[in-house]
């Protein structure tokens, strides 16, 4: 199949992948101000029923165009090209999870537990967002179900990011507009039992599919045996969580085994209530078992094992960009210019012809603009002329004829320049003197108000330590001594005038008893780097406490 050179406004670099209903290309936007942006351009296939494929393609656009999450590939643009739909998505420079699993299977290696928990945790966050997302136009919760969670639709970037793609067969809960009787969509090897049976689905179906991916990452083996589609379907229908072999989780933490019934129980009501519940549990496990984990370590791991792919992608993009730039430069040169100055307008033509100004031609104008070259003089004469020259040109003398009553005018360009006024310190000293005067005046005013009256006596009041109450203002200063739990002793009021005394007594409230402090709460000591999964094994509620999981009580039955 030929690779198109351009799809919509995007220049195509190479083909990335091809699926059952669409193909994906690596494209680049046209350069604007010297900047272009890479994008993954997805189009519907040319073969088959074009109208049906285009309808399914635009259904994916309607569903996922408004999704904006760090773990979901974003859609930038969409449109129609040659009777096919296309959409420009965020380009992820990396590999699919299927490529990573194939690499591990070829070398019989197992992925680190920290990387497994990280990948499943990030995907569960994406599923939780898609299910709880809200339509920005109607404000209703979408409750999107992906229905095709598999290693093929999980991207791993070389920067350590995990992205979910392909919402092509996703649907809203209780929305069967695109369903047909008996039709099953998705990859059979990762379907839930209710999806194989054609029952109504909820978010628990995506959680089961993610559990299958989790099992295969841990064990490096296929979850459902079978070589044909019918064999895989029969294995799914006969599946029970009690039949899982714990020996497959050898050399793994017990907590990883305890997570399985939450994801892979055959009964939907005994799984995690939603993907958000699962994400909280996996995040707690990751931080408890691997507290030093970093996404950068995962990025370094991918760059190490896929170094050839990483360097090849960068080199391919660089070569295409260089080729595109050379092509654009060649096309620009082929257009040509008129003497490298573009086309001439009427004004430029008149200047060249010399008819713009009467009696002036281009040669004379050029001779006036370019000053003539001064004649060469001997070195001795030049030095003598420089020494004899006056450093300051003389100022023009203005003569006024008072009798005639007229003043000769001087052109503005011959006016003598006046020297700038000399800066003095008068303003600074003036401000300093004003500030000092203000400070002295305020000091005298405050000092005068602080001098006591002649006919005043100091009053001593012994006041109990209590809350402040309203006191009557007196003109004399009051000396207060605070003593707790002591009765109030009233003294004589200060003399207000000649032989006059204040007759009003002051009342002081008794000090209230201090309130008893509540005993400090006890804090529980949590053992570092430990995570108790006993509550899950015993059928108790796990961290959020929203649902009981009792699948392990009947494992032996």
Written account of the structure:
With 557 residues, the chain is an alpha+beta fold. The protein has helices at 50-64, 97-107, 113-132, 193-196, 203-219, 229-237, 254-258, 260-264, 275-289, 295-305, 307-335, 346-353, 362-369, 379-388, 426-450, 534-537, and strands at residues 6-7, 10-18, 22-29, 38-44, 75-81, 84-89, 94-96, 144-145, 154-157, 162-164, 171-172, 459-463, 478-482. The strands form four sheets. It has a six-stranded antiparallel β-sheet with strand order 1-2-3-4-6-5. The chain has a three-stranded antiparallel β-sheet with strand order 7-9-10. Strands 8-11 form a two-stranded antiparallel ribbon. A hairpin with a 3-residue loop joins β2 and β3. α3 (113-132) packs antiparallel against α5 and α3 (113-132) packs antiparallel against α9.
Number of extended strands: 13
What is the CATH architecture assignment of the domain at 93-177 and 184-302? Answer: Orthogonal Bundle
Q: Outline the low-pLDDT stretches.
A: 176-182, 331-342, 355-366, 397-407, 459-480, 520-529, 545-557
Shape: extended
Order of helices and strands: EEEEHEEEHHEEEEHHHHHHHHHHHHEEH
Spatial order of strands in the largest sheet = 1-2-3-4-6-5
Mean pLDDT: 73
* DSSP helical segment count: 16
Structural class: alpha+beta
Largest sheet data: 6 strands, antiparallel
Radius of gyration: 45 Å
CATH-defined superfamily of the domain at 93-177 and 184-302: Transferase(Phosphotransferase) domain 1
- CATH fold name of the domain at 93-177 and 184-302, please? Transferase(Phosphotransferase), domain 1
Question: Helicity, in percent?
Answer: 25-40%
- The proportion of residues in beta strands is 5-15%
CATH class of the domain at 93-177 and 184-302: Mainly Alpha
Span between termini: 56 Å
